[in-house]
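User: Could you check the structure of this?
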Amino acid sequence: MDALATRRNAWRLAGAAALLALGVFFVRPTYPNYDTYYTLIWGDELSRGQLPDYDVFRTPTPHPLSTLFAAGASFLGGAADRFMVLVTMGSFVALVGLLFRFTQVLLGTLVALVAVGVLLTRADLEFYALRGVVDVPFLALVFGAAVLELQRPRRGGPVLLLLGLAGLLRPEAWVLAGAYALWLTWAAPREQRVRTLIRYGAMAAIAPLLWLLADWAVTGEPLYSLTSTRDVAGEFGRQRGVIESIGLIPEYVGANEKIVNVAAGGLGLLLAVWLLRGRALLAIALGAVGVVTFLAISVAGLSVIPRYLVIPSLLLNLCVAVALAGWTLVKEPRARRVALGIGVLAVALVVFRAPSYVNDFRKLNGQTTFVESQHQDLKRVLDDSRVAPLLDSCRPITTPTHSAIPVIRFETGLPNEALEPSIAQKRPPSRGLLFVGETFNFEPAAARSTTGVSERSAAQWWSNYPLSSFDLIAHTPRWRVYANC
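Assistant: Sure, the predicted structure tokens are below.
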């Protein structure tokens, strides 16, 4: 009866969380980020029987599963962008529930409840959910696999299935799947190890093979995603050496609250390892693989950004909960006093940093307001009766930065060659349509991992400037359109 009541309470909490997410979705409309808008464009091309066109200025990394999902969502037409946000918000609710269950299986309900409270302070992750970023469903799949493995060790196929789906969203899951296949092989009886390795190794290889095949089919280059992403990382100055990347680990895993997450989380990690002993192996392996993959990314010359340490960062958040409430699990008097000391220090740090949490949510509110007004005003000016007829005839269409291009293409169906960001032009445009925004960057600062470099790499002196040879034809509070046809 207690188990049944617990299950009912869990479903009630899940329902309440889903309703809250729906409320945020409708009360504060937000829109996808740059990468996801291109995914929607590629999905629409795929749904019409065309290969996606990756030959765009500063191509984001194509994610096969996300593109396939966007193809299915294309029947929603202009509502597909909001649908992607809704799905990602649902993935965030699922992720929090899975992290609750992950912590509950290891350390009990009290620590798991505290962990949920800590996780909800992650304004950066909530912002990703509100922008339709692929990281959120990726994390839900990874921790879904982790929960399955915790509930029944060496489960095999179902775990690899979820990691395979995650591996079609982000390549880090390839390493997790490969490591899991090797662990299943090592745990198998000696006479069955070769068969186990072939079976599970083949399952782990499906995602990278499908990704390579997708790149080959679209571009003729099996390694297109790697080479394209590396080129863009170089343009934006996001490449780092291994030594520099190691130095960035504490900052990146600390996320938006580095003092609490690194200091209290570090103490909580020590306490968790002491409490769990061998049962901590899965969590330690997840974190270690995340760090190793992050360093491998730096060796490969790809973007070294905080998103690639998000799995270790989330695990550190769970360790903050252990620091706060882990003392309740300690029975031995001397150890309990140490655990209580860790708890008192963790509470003091949280109280000390409380103003920063408030500031994070103020910033999140400002960012979502920016996204809402920036996108809705752009949609409004594109529909203006003075602008819409010129979109097909008055070319080129110059945008202040490349991040506006996929949004305009999604809204209008314009081809790639119709639009040019100012950075791609050698001299100021002499004719066409000129879009000018209230602020230079189309994305709020939290969406850019290297803000200063990104601004410099996206700007010309005439970027976002009303050139004298153009006449104002339409405007909204955040956008103005000039024409010289």
